[in-house]
Amino acid sequence: MSDGRGGGAPRRVLLVDAIGTCEGGAQMMLDELFHRIDPTRYEAQFAGLSPGPWPERLRAEGLPVHVVPIARWRDLRTVAAAVGALADLIRRERIDLVHASGSDSLLVASLGARRARVPVVWTVFDPLAGPAPKKLAALRRQLSARLLGALGPDAVIFGTDRAESGTPLRRGTPTATILPGIELGRHGAGDGRRARRALGIPEEAPVLATFGRLSFLKSQTDFVRVVGDLAGRFPDVAGVICGGEGEADYGDRVRSLRHQLGLEDRVHITGFVPDQEKDDILAAADVVVHLARRESFGLAVVEAQAAGKAVVAADASGPRSLIDDGATGVLVPVGDTGRLTEVLTGLLDDPDRRASLGSQARLAAQRHGIGPMVEAIEAVWDRVLDPTAG
């Protein structure tokens, strides 16, 4: 059936996400997709379910952006209103396919797409029915996952190797595993000296850096403690925490701990920074530390590997799938600051070991190029929109 735009016109895809900031792997993957799809075949628009700096930036770039905010997710009337608004948007913009990323957006995007009678594709990074810290929360996740599965997405893209096992779907739902990609050359092109000057870190001082939103799950308090532990052995060691605010009070906890330990001049908290500044900090780092307690993928790990950096990561499922322990990085038990301090001491004492880990890491990162990721996602769209083709 003709869409009224002519047979050769690009198909229109609406990308939907619930987060207003672009710092997590799911959001970065969607952002790259938005900027890099083949414009001769697809036109992308973005619908955010939360306001924030990400949709504002996209709009400032001149890209088609809509915000359908949901102020209270537990208020069924508010959610229903957002579903209706999204369906109206899909019809008004003559959208051919909806692509929802991240578990928070799946329900609203799917209901809106179904109401507007267009197909919907999901990207799922964490098992929808995965474990939760409390029994009631786990039950809610299972019920939510079954409801989502019953909606019947037209295809599902799993952004991690483990997401499929905990995501119930209708029998026969097409699936594909497509890992996030990065711009491989960019992350090794930063200016480390510029970052050191900006932060007031001496040129010869060893630098540890960690990247991610200030969040309990990212364990920046452990990072601060370990920098303090290392200060006795390395008097000029510096730590850099690069990332925007996450939970409302966690950033305050990190800053309070830094003050308690007398590390204000040693641990630098940058907040959210543009890509260039982030790449400069990455270039300045001698070791990149990633301490997430739970991590489905770990884009910051891949970025550090692509920059040829030695990476030390907590042994969560995502980093475990990215790091060959002892060859392309080092894994330490989650929450074990003693072992972390021991590993970092050895690496700061051994520049040849750091260089070897970084060299092998750069080779391992080559499988995560952004181009193949975009092509693979477009191939999923092709199959959904033209299931009999090819």
Explain this structure to me?
The protein is an alpha/beta fold and 390 residues long. It contains 14 helices and 13 strands. Strands 3-2-1-4-5-6-7 form a 7-stranded parallel β-sheet, sandwiched between helices. Strands 10-9-8-11-12-13 form a 6-stranded parallel β-sheet, with helices on both faces. Helix 7 runs parallel beside helix 8. The chain is elongated. The two termini are 19 Å apart. About 2% of the residues have low confidence.
Could you list the spans in which at least 5 consecutive residues all have pLDDT below 50? 136-141
Give the total of beta strands: 13
Q: Provide mean pLDDT, rounded.
A: 88
Helix share, percent: 40-55%
Distance between the termini: 19 Å
Q: How does the overall form come out from the CA principal axes?
A: elongated
What labels would you give this structure?
390 residues, seven-stranded parallel β-sheet, 13 strands, six-stranded parallel β-sheet
